[in-house]
Structures are given as C-alpha cells and as structure tokens.
Here is the input.
Amino acid sequence: MALGRQLMARLDEAARHSRPGPGVTRLFCSDEHRAVLELIADWMRQAGLTPELDASGNLVGRNARAMAGEKTLIMGSHQDTVVEGGKYDGMLGVALPLQALQALKEAGTELPYGIEVVAFGDEEGTRFQSTLVGSRALAGTFDPASLEARDTDGVTLGEALKGFGGDPARIPELARNPEQVLGFVEVHIEQGPVLEQRDHAVGVVTALTGIERHRMRVTGKAGHAGTTPMAGRRDALVGAAGMVVEADRILNATEELVGVVGKLEVRPNAVNVIPAEVTFTLELRSPEADVRERGRREILEAFERHAEARGLELSVETTYQAEAVACADWLIEALEKACRGCGEPAERLFSGAGHDGLAMHDLTDIGMLFVRCRDGLSHHPDEAISGEDAGRATQVLMRFLTDLGASAQAGPPT
Here is the structure.
C-alpha cells in the first residue's frame, strides 16, 4: 500500500534525528528536537499547513481555515522519546495525520473546517521530569512552576525553552478558546498486546489511564564497608531494595493496578562505602482512582515499615498526577464508523498509557485511534508496526476527516 510505504519512510527518516546509541533518543529542546522539527515542518507544508514554533516548544501546523479563526479540529502527538526508545511512539501520531491530509489535498478534497496538527514538544518528561508541557499550554492548564524543573546538567526548563526559540512568558497566550475547537484526535501505537491478540490493525480507545509519580528518598548512614559490623548498619540501599520488592508484591496482588520503580540513584555510590542515601521513583497507573489511591496507601505504609525496621528515614514527594479521562462518545462512534467504512473491525479498548489527551481533555472532547504494534512492545528499540497497518490506519483517518466534514457546520452532537 503506497500510503503505508510513504508513511514508514517518513518515520524512518525522523528516527535518524536521535542521539547515538540503540533505538531513538530525542529529548525536549535538544539538537535532535530542533532537527526533526525542520523535517516535520516540511511535511506540514506538503499537507497544506503553515508551520510555526510556539512559545512552549510545540511545532503547530494550521490550514487557512484555522488561521482565519474557523472552528478547528486539533490532531497530533509528541516528538520526544524516552532514552533508547522506538521510532513510532509519539511520532506516528504526528506523521500519520500529515500523510492523510496530504493525500486528501492531492485528491482535491478540501475539508470545510479548520485543521491544526501539533508536534508536541514534551510528553515523556524524560529530560525535565515535567510531562505534557505543550499540551497543557494549549489546554490552558500549564503550571509556570514547572519552568524551574532542572535536567541532569542543572539547566532549567525555562532556560532550555528560551535557548530553543520558545518564550516562557508567553505560554499563557497559547491557551485555545474551547468554543473554537471541534475536538482533539490522536493516533498512537497501542503499546500493548490487545490488537495483536485480536488480529486487528486498529482499535478505538475509550479512555486514558490515570497516572501518578512519586520520588522516594531513603536516608541511612554511610560507613566503612569493611570495618562497620553488619548488625546495626543503616544501609539505605538494603532498605530501598526491600521497598522495591514490597511494591512489586502489592502491585502483583492488586487488580487494575500497574506500576514500576524505574529510576534509582545511590549516594555516595562507592564500592567500599555503605550507602547513605537512595532516591528512587515510583509510578502507579490505573483507570480507577480509588484502586490507585488504595494501592498507593498500601505501598507507602509498607515502605514506612521497612524504613522503621532498619532505622532509616523516608521522605515522599509527589512529582506528577493526572486522573483518568474518558474519550468523547461522539468521537468514539465517528472513529468506529470510519473503521467500518474502511473494512476494519472497530473493537473498543482502554489505554493503559498516558498521552497528550490527558491534558487536552481539559480543553475539548478527545478521541484516539490505536495502531497494532508487534508484541505490544514500546519504549524499546525493537518497537515495530507494519507498513500495511500504517496504510490502513491512514485510510481510516482520511475517512474520519471526510465524514466529519459532512457535519462540521453543525459541530459535535450534544
């Protein structure tokens, strides 16, 4: 399928803008970010959109109707990646709608509503641990305090944005008027195994999971590893290790709750010194807020018991929290209709990952189309989709856009 081949070629080209090493590593406001935006801007122009870098580091492409202030459908996803991630997470949702819009343009199809495609600057939070910067800016919920977040080199988010060509002081001006927005639609790889198990190329998302992240600091006492008796040691790493195991036990015993300890730092991190301090992260996800809250409470109580038993101090800082959000019924039904019109099964499924829709939900109705990925693998260099599925998903989105055109003047159902 020509659409699929073209799309896969674009995704391969985008993946070259990465730090050296396995997979794709492209961080917010990095040289790789700057380079890939030049590529995306060219795709936008080919699709009939005018690209512009906004104050928060998003690259936004608009058609003439959007720039004239007509009611606008926003599409897009993020360009940034985790460290050593894959080439499709995020970038598929930027490249695919631009491919669909270019195909419609070349076919002479003019959509009777505004279009805005956004390559969000930061969704993963890899560099500054402050996620959804760009989508929160559009939704009008950006927190200026996040500008003080620092990367591992001590650079603040605000400083990085200024160096990148953004303007932190003008971020509040990016908030869209809800009355001028039709909705937000994102295409994304599933990052899970459901579509592959069903043997379906695409699926329609019903809701996005709730997520919370915490930073734990376990403090003990350093000492000479050779002269300090084992009994009575206040080893922060041993205590933290017990906490990690306990978190894993509770997560495995709790339905509809998943989580991970993904980052761990040891101080002084020396071969012959008892660890004095360990900092680690805990992320929890669940579609049900009460399940997540109950799991968090049980995990933190277990951590406190471990700390007390070993004479350690424990501090907990919540660094991020977003509640689960539902996709709009009218967009779910419209995407299902487009799937059926293209001969694709249109079963519904839940997203266990967070996306820019978590923020955009505060602005407008959201909808999401998932694309099958091999082995359900994501955030990994081996992340993969097929060219055939890419083409089929592009056709579904084209059908959705043209169907929406028939009712654009009336707006979404009420």
In short: The chain has two domains: 2-208+324-407, 210-322. Residues 2-208+324-407 form a domain with the Aminopeptidase fold (CATH 3.40.630.10). The radius of gyration is 23 Å.
